[in-house]
Amino acid sequence: MMDRDNPALNRLEKQLNPQHSAVAVIDLQNDFVSAKGLLAREKGLDVEPIRPVINAANSLVSLARKSGVRVFWIRVVHTIADSPKNYLEKYLGHLPEDQWTDDKLLAREGSWGAEWDEEILPRLDSEPEILKRNYSGFYGTHFDHMLRAQGVRTLLFAGCNTNVCVQATASDAFYRGYYSIMVEDACASVTPEMNANFIENHKKWFGDTTDIAALRAYWG
What we know:
By secondary structure, this protein is an alpha/beta fold. Helices cover 36% and strands 16% of the residues. The chain is built from 9 helices and 6 strands, in the order αβαααβαβαβαβαβα. A 6-stranded parallel beta sheet has the order 3-2-1-4-5-6, sandwiched between helices.
């Protein structure tokens, strides 16, 4: 739990104070955003609705850097050995278990599909990269410890897919006491409708939303 002695940040402008804010960029990796990635190639999903969010995420990262806001990069990597059985059954359950191999996994560790899209701004050495094995960036990682050590109280989220890993991490942040804010124009799913539904669900139950134009005004 977060420190109960901290005063509540009861307005968005207080929550967005750069001194205690951080941006989390989630899963803008080849397998999720490229037409050559596994999501499009093997699952037959159209990833084109996700592509524009890459430029938006770049704008958000640039703004955060100029404003002294911390940036964390959260990337999923999978191997059969390190993945929970329930995750493997969900994605590979159509195959006999003896045919579950690493090459069938999204974002296989060490593969091109697991790397950041080439259009993403390069990560700075001062910006931690969190490698996760499940949907949430908090699950099985040191992300929470890093945030607390740096006095972070507010997390702003960008990336894909809003309905899976972004939402899982954002709601997990809420459970742990962080102010959880979706940057609407920097999040995407494979359909705009799905993205909008999960943004609205987040706004109703988990935290506020904002966009890059508003952040420019707040962070100046």
